[in-house]
Amino acid sequence: MTSRLSRRLPIALAGAGLLLTGRALVCRALLLRLRRDVRALNAGDIRPLLSNFAQDAVMRFNDGEHRWAGEHRGKDAIAAFLQSFVDAGLQGHVSELFVSGPPWRTTLIARFDDHASDAAGEEIYRNRTILLARARWGRIVSQEDFYEDTQRIVELERRLSG
Description:
Elements: H1 2-42, H2 47-50, E1 53-61, E2 70-73, H3 75-87, E3 91-100, E4 106-117, E5 123-136, E6 139-147, H4 150-161
C-alpha cells in the first residue's frame, strides 16, 4: 500500500503543479489582452475593449453629477460610455488583474488608474479604480467600478462642461 501511494504522490503533485501553472498563464494572458485593449482605448478605438462584453452586459458606474453616472445596460450603452471616456480625453492603465472561478462563472478584479490632461498638457484629473467584473465563457456580463475619489469625476465633468 505504501509503495502504491509513493508512486501516485509524484503524479498527483505534478498534476497540481500543472493546474496552478495553467491558471497563472491564463491570468497573465488575460492581463496582457486587457492592457492591449486599454491601449487601443487610449488611442481612441473602443472596439477591442467592447468586444469583451456580452450583448446584454450591464456596467454600473457611481452616481453623481457627471456623464458616466448610473447603469449602462447592453453593449450599445456600454459603447456610448466608452466613447464618452475617449471623447473626454481620459487615459487609463491596468496594473493588476485577479481572476477566480470557472469559465462559466468567472470573477475578475482589476486595478485601473486613469487621468486626463488639458490642451496645454497640464494634468486636470487623476483617479484610482477597482473594476469588479463577472464573466461567462469569456464575455463580461456585469461590471461595477469603484473609484478612490468620486468627487474628482464631478470636478472633471465641470471642467469639461465649462
